[in-house]
Amino acid sequence: MTLKEIRSEYHIQLDDIYDFNEVESFFYMLIEQYFQLPKYSIALEPDKVISGPDQTIMLEALEELKSQKPIQYILGNTEFFGLHFKLNKDVLIPRPETEELVTWVLEECQGMNLKILDVGTGSGCIAIVLAKNLPEAQISGLDISRRAIGLATENASINDVGVRFFQTDILLSETLSEEIMDKEFDIIVSNPPYVLNSEKKEMRLNVLDNEPHSALFVDDDRALLFYNGIIEFAKKALKVNGSLYFEINEKFGQEICNLLKENKYSDIQLKQDIYGKDRMIRAIKS
Ligand SMILES: C[S@@+](CC[C@H](N)C(=O)[O-])C[C@H]1O[C@@H](n2cnc3c(N)ncnc32)[C@H](O)[C@@H]1O
Which of 53, 163, 208, 280 is the most exposed place for a label (fewest CB within 10 A)? Predict the structure, then answer.
């Protein structure tokens, strides 16, 4: 098949599922990654023949897109905060709202030799961007998933930063290694699982069928499970005057602020994302 024919096949099969421009962009991302062909090659060489295994890989990607597999998982990578991250089904695709959380941490992060912990690190995106932008800081990340920790470690190496990763369950603080507990962090940041099980029905199939549920969901009757767990952990592991940054479910902004108040945090700030949704909280430990 020629490039032009493959693009046309993408539109025939995908335009009912995705926006026209989205299909264009999938096609260009794939030819760039698989054949290092820039976007303008469709104008320069529309009749370039893509055959054999090259054609197969493009048609396989088309099938995966038809089943609504996210393009980031098909490509096996994504960009976050201008950095390149490997991805697979063991980790969540980093979201734009998490870039906003990281921006907030970076704006407020002053001083050298800060010790920072990212709880529920997944692909390592938060920890690695912080490490890249704060070369003097000591950054650690933890996750319950061994596979996520493996991928985060690879991503740190791809991005040429030193981050210490730990495979551990934040909710079982008695099992946390002394290496973590003894650190006394200046900052703990977390984008924990916060989508309610009851919200599954409002979610797109491509998320439900592809992304790890343990990274996303909590039971409705334990919506604040991870916030409680991290606040408990922070009693020992966060310095006085240290900061806690959370990404949150927009439904629970006020409740999480109250929880922080009850736990003697001050300067509690609830912040909206670019869509005006309550999405992030920062608080200082008194
Ligand atoms: C919403 S994802 C965030 C991933 C990444 N930090 C990001 O922002 O894209 C939540 C992460 O928390 C991890 N997680 C779930 N339960 C955990 C637990 N009990 N202890 C530590 N990490 C946990 C999941 O494996 C997942 O990687």
Answer: 53
